[in-house]
Design brief:
Layout lengths: L1 H15 L2 H23 L4 E2 L2 E2 H32 L3 H4 L5 H27 L10 H25 L3 H17 L12 H7 L3 H14 L6 H25 L6
């Protein structure tokens, strides 16, 4: 596992060296979301009997973690491909399994760090009580893994930065923004409630929020099953792509 440890160190160092941009900036963005939405809706909205600001915080934590996990692996790969430095990762005897683990674990770490930062700076608005820390940790790790693997796929597929931006703007952003971060799906019309159940990110957000309040829109066991299955499927697809050498070795 020497190759895995070395590549993981390189990936973690890559985002940590510019942590003001990769960690602090997303935390500030989430705080601005909370300030604006809580100011407008706090006096008018309660969800599951929870004040709106408290309800919003776990959603913002998870959304920030997911988006930054995706950004970490995808940006690293596209930068390496555009600059030609990806050859220095491909030449050493690193297996595709180690390659996958290094990029996904680094993405998880960045996602968890950003999520922890968002929770820390937003807690002065309304500190949500954490009912089940294990559920919270499970969902943020699995969610970060899914987005890290999806970011790896996007980074391999894209040849240019605008292609990667399209992947993020037309797939990742809608999935996260329309996943119940800012609302309960029970406030939606029946048709859109049913559509929301086809969004795997909804289950990540809902299960993560259950760990704080002990209430959710669907059973947490259902959310865990969907998220776990999604992680297995995306990971398998990423490993197959890496094994084939698509757009990396060929």
């Amino acid at each position: 596992m020497l190759g895995f440890r070395t590549l993981l160190y390189k990936e973690v160092l890559r985002f940590w060296k510019v942590s003001f941009q990769t960690v602090a900036a997303p935390v500030l963005t989430a705080m601005l979301y909370l300030m604006i939405f809580s100011h407008v809706l706090e006096a008018h909205v309660q969800v599951h009997g929870v004040p709106y600001a408290a309800f919003l915080i776990p959603g913002l934590v998870m959304m920030s973690a997911l988006q930054n996990a995706f950004a970490n692996s995808s940006s690293s790969l596209i930068q390496s491909k555009v600059t030609g430095s990806v050859v220095f990762v491909l030449l050493p005897p690193i297996s595709y399994g180690e390659f996958f683990l290094a990029y996904v674990v680094a993405a998880m770490l960045r996602g968890v760090m950003v999520g922890a930062g968002v929770l820390l700076v937003t807690s002065w608005f309304a500190l949500p009580q954490m009912q089940s820390p294990l559920w919270v940790l499970t969902f943020i790790v699995l969610g970060g893994g899914i987005m890290g693997a999806l970011g790896t796929v996007a980074g391999i597929w894209a040849d240019k930065f605008d292609q990667l931006a399209g992947f993020q703007n037309f797939l990742v952003m809608p999935l996260t923004m329309l996943s119940g971060v800012f609302y309960s799906i029970h406030s939606l019309p029946d048709f859109w409630q049913q559509i929301s159940h086809f969004n795997p990110v909804f289950y990540m957000i809902d299960g993560f929020r259950f760990g704080f309040f002990g209430v959710s829109d669907v059973a947490p066991e259902t959310s865990l099953a969907v998220v776990g299955t999604s992680f297995a499927l995306v990971s398998a697809a990423t490993l197959l792509l890496l094994r084939s050498g698509y757009k990396l070795r060929s």
